[in-house]
C-alpha cells in the first residue's frame, strides 16, 4: 500500500480550482480527463487533492469503510466500482465521516445516494449517477493501487481536479509544468477576449483562413 501524496499548498489548490479542469486538461497536452459520465452532484462543487484509490466489487462498499481508516486529510477518494449503477455505494453517513477526516472530495465510477444531503453538506462528490439501492459489506478489494476509469489510469497520489466540467488527473511529476502551461493558456485566452471585444474574430486570431480555403469555405 503506497500513499505518499505530493503536499499541496493552499495557494496551489486555490489556483488549480481557479484555472479549472478544461484549461488544465488542454494545457497538459489533452490527456487525463475522465469520461464525460463523471459529473458533480452540484454544479458549484470544486475539489483538488491527491488520489487515494479504492478498487472494489460492484454493490459492495466494504472497502470504502476500510479506506476511511487510512485516508489522510486533503485526499480525494477515487472509488472504482466498475461503473455499476444499481447501488449507491456512498451516502450522507460516509460523507459526514469524510468531512470529519478532512477529505477533499470523492470520485465514484458508479452511483451514490442521499444526493441532496451531500449537496447540502457542501462536500464535493463526483459520480456517474444516482441509485437509491444499498450495498453489501462482504467483498474484499484493494486500496492505493492503480485504477482505470474509462481510458484514464489513476495512480495513488495523482492530483485530482474536479469542477462543473468534469474531472482531470495530473501526474505529480508534471504538476508544475501543467500549472505554468495553464496560466499561459489563460493569459492567451484573456488576450483573445480583449481583441474580440475590440472587433477581432476567432477565425483571424486562430489563423483559420487557409483552413477555410482548403475546404472551400470562402
TrEMBL record:
Keywords: Magnesium, Metal-binding
Binding-site residues, Mg(2+): 114
Cofactor (UniProt): a divalent metal cation; Mg(2+)
SUPFAM superfamilies: RraA-like (SSF89562)
Pfam families in UniProt: RraA-like (PF03737)
Superkingdom of origin: Bacteria
GO MF: metal ion binding
Keyword Transcription in annotation: no
Protein residues bound to substrate: 91-94, 113
Entries under InterPro entries matching the protein: RraA/RraA-like, RraA/RraA-like_sf
The protein, known as: Putative 4-hydroxy-4-methyl-2-oxoglutarate aldolase
Organism the protein comes from: Winslowiella iniecta
Organism lineage: Bacteria, Pseudomonadati, Pseudomonadota, Gammaproteobacteria, Enterobacterales
Amino acid at each position: 500500500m503506497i500513499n505518499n501524496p505530493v503536499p499541496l499548498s493552499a495557494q496551489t489548490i486555490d489556483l488549480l480550482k481557479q484555472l479549472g479542469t478544461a484549461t488544465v486538461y488542454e494545457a497538459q497536452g489533452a490527456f487525463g480527463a475522465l469520461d464525460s459520465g463523471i459529473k458533480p452532484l452540484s454544479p458549484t462543487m470544486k475539489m483538488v487533492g491527491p488520489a487515494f484509490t479504492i478498487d472494489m466489487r460492484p454493490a459492495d462498499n466494504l472497502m470504502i469503510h476500510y479506506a476511511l481508516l487510512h485516508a489522510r486529510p486533503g485526499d480525494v477518494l477515487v472509488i472504482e466500482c466498475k461503473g455499476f449503477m444499481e447501488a449507491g455505494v456512498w451516502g450522507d453517513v460516509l460523507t459526514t465521516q469524510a468531512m470529519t477526516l478532512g477529505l477533499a472530495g470523492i470520485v465514484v465510477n458508479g452511483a451514490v445516494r442521499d444526493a441532496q444531503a451531500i449537496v447540502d453538506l457542501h462536500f464535493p462528490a463526483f459520480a456517474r449517477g444516482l441509485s437509491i439501492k444499498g450495498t453489501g459489506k462482504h467483498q474484499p478489494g484493494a486500496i492505493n493501487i492503480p485504477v482505470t476509469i474509462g481510458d484514464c489510469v489513476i495512480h495513488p497520489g495523482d492530483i485530482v481536479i474536479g469542477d462543473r466540467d468534469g474531472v482531470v488527473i495530473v501526474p505529480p511529476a508534471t504538476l508544475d509544468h501543467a500549472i505554468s502551461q495553464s496560466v499561459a493558456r489563460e493569459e492567451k485566452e484573456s488576450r483573445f477576449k480583449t481583441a474580440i471585444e475590440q472587433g477581432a474574430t476567432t477565425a483571424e486570431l486562430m489563423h483559420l483562413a487557409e483552413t477555410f480555403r482548403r475546404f472551400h469555405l470562402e
